[in-house]
Amino acid sequence: MATGWGSLLQDEQQLEELARQAVDRALAEGVLLRTSQEPISSEVVSYAPFTLFPSLVPSALLEQAYAVQMDFNLLVDAVSQNAAFLEQTLSSTIKRDNFTAHLFDIHKQILKEGIAQTVFLGLNRSDYMFQRNADGSAALKQIEINTISASFGGLASRTPAVHRHVLNVLGKTKEAAKILSNNPSKGLAMGIAKAWELYGSANARVLLIAQEKERNIFDQRAIENELLARNIHVIRRKFEDVSEKGSLDQDRRLFMDDQEVAVVYFRDGYMPSHYSLQNWGARLLLERSCAVKCPDIATQLAGTKKVQQELSRSGMLEVLLPGQPEAVARLRATFAGLYSLDMGEEGDQAITEAIAAPSCFVLKPQREGGGNNLYGEEMVQALERLKDSEERASYILMEKIEPEPFGNCLLRPGSPARVVQCISELGIFGVYVRQGKTLVMNKHVGHLLRTKAIEHADGGVAAGVAVLDNPYPV
Ligand code: ADP
Ligand code: MG
Q1: Ligand 1 pocket test target in 373, 378, 379 with most atoms within 8 Å of CB
Q2: How much is the average pLDDT of 363-374?
């Protein structure tokens, strides 16, 4: 795999000038974040961190990631409808993980009461790294799938112009033209619009559940703007607002401030810290309603790391996607090694192997949002501590993916431009809509490339580790 922009990275003076131009273009394009000092206000904003150059990605892997996205949509949707699979898969985890247990309680309660929702909307992002093979080639390996609050579709629509600008400044017009256009926010909005339309109430709103301190608001606004262009109105509210002003009528239609809600789009609610007791109550109210939740609680559970690990068991995909051997083969080709830590021989063996070869594994709890996984010596210590406790079932072990590092220059507000050794993570956005048992939409709608310095094992853009990037197909 060719790895980079070679001599361009050595000319420090040129890099500085290029960086200045790139930052101005990023600001002009709206590649923006609120600042960490003022996360509740848009008065002062800055650019979202990004790479100076697009990073080289083999076209075959990009195509493979796009080609498997509809299969992942089908798989997530199938898991979300399979209550027995979810119950069995999560049974040991929920004994030891309060957050997953709380989500699961709501799921059970909804099943008992009967699901009022008839239209289902999935907006997800499947993330991959490029495993370096012994022969120097690279293989696409899934890191995880995000079924709630998958972000950066909005900003990813705006970064291609920035990288084209950089290459055009260098007179590399042919190279600039190779940067793929990308508009995930449009596709995500299309899914929301379809769900809204099928809900079938002309004056109903889309309710976006947001946090007050939201640095990534412009990413969300990109989707809101697309919806407004289709004459669909979005109201942004917090869980606390739902507790105060949300209600259900006798048909379990959801109302917020007396406005009917067709679709609830969560950009919050994926971490324990997002929930007070009151917020859990609000989540339950939303789930009980017939509004289209994106995601509904079962689909959120389908995105847990424990589910990911169980899906990799031999024969499991065949059970969940019967009669679809080609989809099963495409999906399985992207799976890395995944190991259960449930009590028993299988878990014991995985722990022994990970302790013996810590650099080959990652220990993952059931958490989202970056910065929760354990690597190396920290992982070994955790495994030693957990080994004889049932608490270990709230984690999974995963094979550590080792991509080939390459040089790129990372740009962040307040830091000098730095050329460092990097690795990338590719995400593909997927959208599906189901009405009753009929799938009415199943698409891929764009990509996100994030790149980080190799010294960081974990963490995404929001966690301050990775930066936005574009694939340069080779
Ligand atoms: P989260 O839900 O917190 O985003 P992830 O599973 O995506 O959890 O892990 C966070 C980050 O850790 C990823 O973005 C990636 O950089 C790194 N990571 C996760 N799994 C692996 C793995 N198997 N091999 C190498 N790096 C990994
Ligand atoms: Mg992730």
Answers
A1: 373
A2: 92
Taking alpha carbons only, the member of 388, 407, 417, 394 closest to residue 454 is 407
pLDDT tens track for 76-133: 999 999 999 999 999 999 999 999 999 999 999 999 999 999 999 999 999 999 999 9
**410: Cα separation from own chain's centroid:** 22
Distance CA 375, CA 318 (A): 32
Selecting among 151, 185, 279, 340, the annotated active-site residue is 151
Cα separation of the two ends of the chain: 9
Phi and psi at 223, nearest 5°, equal -75, -45
Catalytic residue check, 318: no
Active site residue 146: yes
Tokens of 181: 């256009």
375 is in an annotated binding site: yes
pLDDT digit string, tens, across residues 377-394:
999 999 999 999 999 999
Predicted TM-score (pTM) of the model is: 0.97
* Residue 287 is among the residues annotated as catalytic for this protein: no
CA of 369 to the centre of ligand 2 (A): 7
pLDDT in tens, 255-309: 999 999 999 999 999 999 999 999 999 999 999 999 999 999 999 999 999 999 9
CB neighbour list of residue 278: distance below 8 Å, 6 or more residues apart = 239, 240, 243
Hey, which of 335, 401, 458, 465 would you mutate to test ligand 1's pocket, going by the most ligand atoms within 8 Å of its Cβ?
458
Point out which residues pair with 419 in neighbouring strands.
409
